[in-house]
Every structure is written in structure tokens, then in C-alpha cells.
Design brief:
Blueprint: H1 8-17, H2 26-37, E1 57-58, E2 89-90, E3 115-120, H3 135-138, E4 150-153, E5 160-163, E6 166-173, E7 176-181, H4 200-210, E8 224-230, E9 234-239, H5 246-251, H6 260-266, E10 280-286, E11 289-294, E12 307-312, H7 316-324, E13 330-332, H8 335-344, E14 348-364, H9 374-382, H10 391-394, H11 427-434, E15 445-450, H12 454-469, E16 474-479, H13 481-490, E17 496-499, H14 507-515, H15 529-539, H16 544-561, E18 564-577, E19 580-581, E20 599-600
Parallel strand pairs: 3-12, 3-13, 15-16, 15-17
Antiparallel strand pairs: 1-8, 2-5, 4-5, 6-7, 7-9, 8-9, 10-11, 11-12, 13-18, 14-17, 14-18, 19-20
């Protein structure tokens, strides 16, 4: 992937771009850009936390100065309003995955233990959870040793935010979140923490550190005005404006809670040690391997496994070979590799997880003739077959691989597949419209395709061929991934582009950045005041059913614009031996808590 933070000039242009003020949540966009950039700073100011000090008020936009006198906080009234939420759970959020398999109940006589051995394609750059966006750390690595204020529950098939370190929460006003911590939470029994209690001051320190300006995960807390610790167990979070995703952000895998003493020891956590309050204790962390064992003093349900060994194996063939030889119990691989392994070993099981916000993105520049005409854009879409590179799926004819790219957790909030078939693959109708098209540049149109892989190139070649056949001379220009971000994502220098979508995990952040008329990455130039209004409205809508209505309406209007979509959603495939029970790799916002509910059957118990 193109790494924006590698180029200073590029970052400066981004900083200039996001200084807009089109809605109260404009600063939300500014830091969303930074999470995509993956900018990592190496230093931060630290604040140690002592249970005996008075409650503190800490603004999350800067690090506190330890020499400044601490301000005593007053408790916030807890009178409930109409927006007061259930004390332990809320379906605020949404995610990008296929519906999970039903959770399997373990046998009553299950003997807990055994080590699960699995492989991932890429490891983390270091082990500081606040200084990287790497899933190799936060989802599949040492990040699992840390807790969060909230986490996701998938027992009903849809991700629902529930308490992790907290015991309850209430939304006393649209911008005031009151959180009470559990009374039985402790840091892992490792020096210098030695199993001491997790306090509200620890939470304030950690969230404040995460929110440091220019830190890669700061955008998750950009709607927060201040965090207040009241005593040892109570926290008040005040928002700049109502934020329908605030609990989802606090449950995100990037919002790990770290201890001030451990950060202070080396000024950061890049080299460790990793000491959290989560279900797993990190015993070894190398560039190519992470080893975790069960935390026996964990406050929640103790994992069924005794430990996890995670190997980094970039080569897919190596991972598959590891499975065949049973050096590995679980591995990621492409579907073709899994099909081949499945033919030889009946005991191998597999699953594909679909991500509607990732895949092959197509966008058309509506500022250029004749693409500025909506009927022309519709006709261009009719020339293309979105399943041309996936013949196995093509026979279903229901276009399951097309989406609008919104990162939605709840699959019920996605625009139904029935909206897409009549938008594609009708060359005859397209030719009728395009044969009389005027205003074409002499050189025709150019499709710029990012070199992200053969599927992207194949799809772009198909699109160019079909447009030319329909009467619009179309050229193809391949763009390296190193320059794609500058040329396409930022500068909008294209007629049509085919490439990877921007990695924005927040629904609201994605909509404001890409589909709002003034969005910093709205390079298609498409503008619709109704969409702008709906984007702002859903961002402050706490009622899930009402927010869902607005999101579906937004998607209908985006589709009507015929200017931007995902033409092939990305699937992630996993395979595992049948003695691995309840393996369900659905990871809302990177939450891999499902591993605590995996166990090994009697045929493979160690």
C-alpha cells in the first residue's frame, strides 16, 4: 500500500487540504486523513498516574504538562435524557464482513488448554499500539494483551458494542458520555505494574496519549473535547458534537488501553514491554513471531486455549505448506490454494470473509466532458461486467461483488444487491447512448489504473475495451502505487481511475472525506446538497434504526450519481484443521476477541 507518511511534501498538501470547516465535524476529517496516512511520531509527553491524586480533567488534543497544577473535576449530573442508552450494550456501529457462523458452545467437560498455531502475511513495524495502524499488531499480535473500554459482541450475528473494562455507561446528554469501570480489573502481574488495579486515571492517560496530534490513531477520538476522571472508577467523556460512532471508536482495536508507568520507562512502547489487562499475556515478540499465553487473572471469561503462537509468513506457499504438514493449525490463503488443499485433505475447513469497503474501486471525474453528464456515466457503467474476473461467481447473476465502498458494520445497512444488476453489463443499451456522445477530447478518455495486482489491471483493460467498442476511444495508463496517492487520491488527475479504496474505517469519516461536496478527497467533483445534509444528520443520529434509514438513502443517492463504486469486493480466506473448534474470523474494527472462544478438540489438545 502507498504510504503517505513517507513523503513530507505530500503530507503538507494533506494538512492544507483538511483545513476546511464545512460542518461541526470538520476536525473529524482532518484526523481521518492522518489515520490513512499512517504518520508515526516517535516521541510523546508522558504523564504518570497515581491513584491517590485528585480527579483530573485532560483535553485529548494535547499532552498535559506535568508541571501544571491539576484541576479538580466536578461530577457530571447523571440524570437520564431520552438519549440515555442501555447500560451495557448498544448497536451504534457497523462493520465490513460476511455474516459470521453461529457460535458453537463448548462441551461441558472441555479441558482448557493447548496452543493454537497460525500464520499471517505481514507483521507489525513495532509493538506500540498507539503508534501504528498495523493489524499485525492490533488484531493478530501483541495488541491482544491490551483491553479497551468497549468491545464487540457477535453472538447474534451483528456486531454490537458492549462493555470491556467498563461495567456500565449512559449518555446523559447528546455530548456527554458517563462511564463506570468494573471493580475487578487489574494490570497483568508483571513489573512495574505488578497486578495493580486499573484506574480511571489510567484510562484518561491512555486515551489522551492515543489522541496526540499527528498520532496515527488520533482520528478515532477527534470528536472528543475532554475526558474527566472522577475518583478511581468513573469517567466522563464530553464531545465536541454528537457522534453516533463514539462507542464504536472506543471499541476499535486501535483504542488499546496502556499504562503510564510502562510508557514512561522507555518514552514509548515500540520495544515493549507489553503489559496490559487483556486475556492474553505476551511472552515473546519478534519480527516474525508472537507468543501469547492465557492471563490467569483476567477479569472476563478465561480463554479456552492455553496460548497462541502467531507466525509471520509473507509467502502464501509457505503458509499452505505449513498447513499441509500440520506445523500450522490455521492460515490465511487465496481461495485457489485452499481449494487445492481441501481436495487433498477432507479435514480442512475454510471460510471467506467479505469486505464491502475494500476491493477494486472505480471513480469517474465528473468535472471532465463528457463524464460530466449523468446519462453518459450511467451508459459507461452499462458497458462493464463487474464479474469479468470472477467467473465462479458470475453464474449467480446477483452481483454480490458490487458495493458503494462504505465501511458499514451492520450488513443490514448495506444497499441491497438488487440495486446493482440493471446498472451493469448491457452493452447494447450503452452503445445506443454513447454512439451520439459529443464533447469527447481528441485523445479520448484515459483510465488510470493503480498497479495493486493483476485483478486491477485485468478489470481496467476490460473497461477500456468495452468503452472503445461502445464508441468512446479509451486508453489505459498504469500508475505505480508510489504515485497513485498523489496523482489520484489527492490531486484528482484522472478521467477514470481503477485502484484501491482509501483505508478509512469510520462510516462518518468516509462519507465526509469522500462524498461530501467539500470533502478533502472528493476528487470526482460530484456535489449533491441532499447528500451533504444526510451525511451531517447521520453523524449525530444515535438511534440505530433512524441512522440506518439515512445511510440507505445516502447510498441510493450516491448510486444515482453513477460516479464511484467498488466493482469487486475483497474477500479474505482462512483455512483450518477440523480439530480447531469455533474458529470464526469475523473482526469488527479489528476486534479479534473471537480467539478467546476457540478451542482444540480432543484429537489435538496440545
Amino acid at each position: 500500500m502507498y504510504r503517505i507518511g513517507q513523503h513530507k511534501a505530500y503530507l503538507q498538501r494533506l494538512l492544507k487540504l483538511y483545513k476546511i470547516n464545512f460542518v461541526p465535524l470538520s476536525n473529524f476529517i482532518s484526523l481521518t486523513i492522518l489515520i490513512c496516512a499512517g504518520l508515526i511520531l516517535t516521541q510523546c509527553t508522558n504523564q504518570t498516574s497515581n491513584p491517590s491524586i485528585p480527579p483530573t480533567v485532560v483535553k485529548t488534543t494535547q499532552q498535559p504538562d506535568p508541571t501544571v497544577t491539576v484541576q479538580t473535576a466536578q461530577p457530571t449530573p447523571t440524570a437520564k435524557s431520552k438519549l440515555t442508552s442501555d447500560p451495557t450494550a448498544t448497536p451504534f456501529a457497523t462493520i465490513t464482513s460476511a455474516a459470521p457462523k453461529p457460535t458453537i458452545r463448548p462441551p461441558k467437560n472441555l479441558e482448557q488448554g493447548g496452543t493454537l498455531r497460525f500464520a499471517i502475511p505481514e507483521g507489525p513495524p513495532h509493538i506500540d499500539p498507539h503508534l501504528t495502524v498495523s493489524s499485525g499488531l492490533l488484531t493478530w499480535g501483541t495488541g491482544q494483551s491490551y483491553s479497551r473500554l468497549f468491545k464487540f459482541n457477535l453472538s447474534n450475528g451483528i456486531p454490537v458494542v458492549v462493555c470491556d473494562l467498563c461495567s456500565s455507561w449512559t449518555l446523559s446528554t447528546p455530548i456527554t458520555l458517563n462511564i463506570k469501570l468494573r471493580g475487578d480489573i487489574n494490570w497483568q502481574d508483571i513489573p512495574p505494574l505488578n497486578g495493580r488495579a486499573v484506574t480511571a486515571q489510567d484510562i484518561v492517560f491512555s486515551l489522551n496519549r492515543q489522541a496526540t496530534i499527528n498520532y496515527p490513531n488520533a482520528s478515532l477520538l477527534s470528536s472528543v473535547a475532554e475526558i474527566t476522571a472522577i475518583g478511581e472508577r468513573d469517567i466522563v467523556i464530553r464531545l465536541l458534537s454528537a457522534d453516533s460512532e463514539i462507542l464504536e471508536k472506543l471499541a476499535d482495536s486501535h483504542s488499546r488501553i496502556v499504562a503510564p508507568e510502562v510508557v514512561k520507562a522507555n518514552d514509548d512502547l515500540r520495544r515493549g514491554p507489553t503489559i496490559g489487562s487483556g486475556p492474553w499475556i505476551t511472552t515473546e515478540s519478534q519480527a516474525d513471531m508472537t507468543r501469547l499465553i492465557v492471563n490467569p487473572n483476567y477479569y472476563g471469561d478465561i480463554p479456552y486455549l492455553g496460548g497462541i503462537d502467531i507466525q509471520v509468513m509473507p509467502a502464501q506457499g509457505t503458509r499452505v505448506a505449513g498447513m499441509r504438514s500440520k506445523i500450522l493449525d490455521v492460515a490465511q490463503a487465496d481461495r485457489s490454494f485452499i481449494s487445492e488443499a481441501k481436495e487433498k485433505f477432507e479435514e480442512i475447513e475454510w471460510i471467506g470473509i467479505s469486505n464491502s469497503a475494500a476491493g477494486i474501486e472505480v471513480a469517474m471525474n465528473t468535472a471532465r466532458s463528457p463524464i460530466d453528464r449523468q446519462d453518459v456515466r450511467k451508459a459507461m457503467m452499462l458497458t462493464w461486467d463487474p464479474l469479468i474476473t470472477d467467473l465462479d461467481v458470475k453464474e449467480t447473476k446477483d452481483y454480490p461483488m458490487v458495493s458503494l465502498g462504505l465501511p458499514l458494520l451492520n450488513p443490514d445497512w448495506q444497499l441491497p444487491n438488487t440495486n446493482f444488476p440493471n446498472r451493469f453489463n448491457d452493452p447494447k443499451k450503452a452503445s445506443t447512448i454513447l454512439s451520439s456522445t459529443e464533447g469527447l477530447p481528441e485523445e479520448g478518455l484515459t483510465i488510470k489504473v493503480g498497479e495493486y495486482g493483476s485483478e486491477y489491471i485485468d478489470m481496467a483493460q476490460h473497461m477500456a475495451k468495452e468503452l472503445t467498442s461502445a464508441g468512446i476511444q479509451t486508453n489505459l495508463e498504469r500508475i505505480s502505487t508510489r504515485t497513485f496517492g498523489d496523482e489520484v487520491w489527492v490531486n484528482g488527475n484522472y478521467d477514470i481511475f481503477v485502484g484501491a479504496p482509501l483505508p478509512i474505517s469510520s462510516t462518518t469519516g468516509y462519507l465526509f472525506a469522500i462524498h461530501h461536496s467539500n470533502g478533502p478527497w472528493n476528487t470526482t467533483g460530484y456535489s449533491n446538497p441532499e447528500i451533504d445534509h444526510l451525511i451531517a444528520a447521520q453523524a449525530e443520529e444515535y438511534r440505530p434504526n433512524k441512522r440506518a434509514e439515512k445511510l440507505l438513502e445516502i447510498q441510493q443517492k450516491i448510486l444515482a450519481g453513477s460516479h464511484r463504486f467498488i466493482i469487486k469486493k475483497r474477500n479474505t480466506y482462512w483455512m483450518w484443521w477440523d480439530y480447531v473448534e469455533n474458529f470464526n474470523p469475523t473482526t469488527p474494527r479489528g476486534d479479534s476477541d473471537f480467539l478467546t472462544r476457540v478451542w482444540l478438540s480432543n484429537s489435538k489438545s496440545s
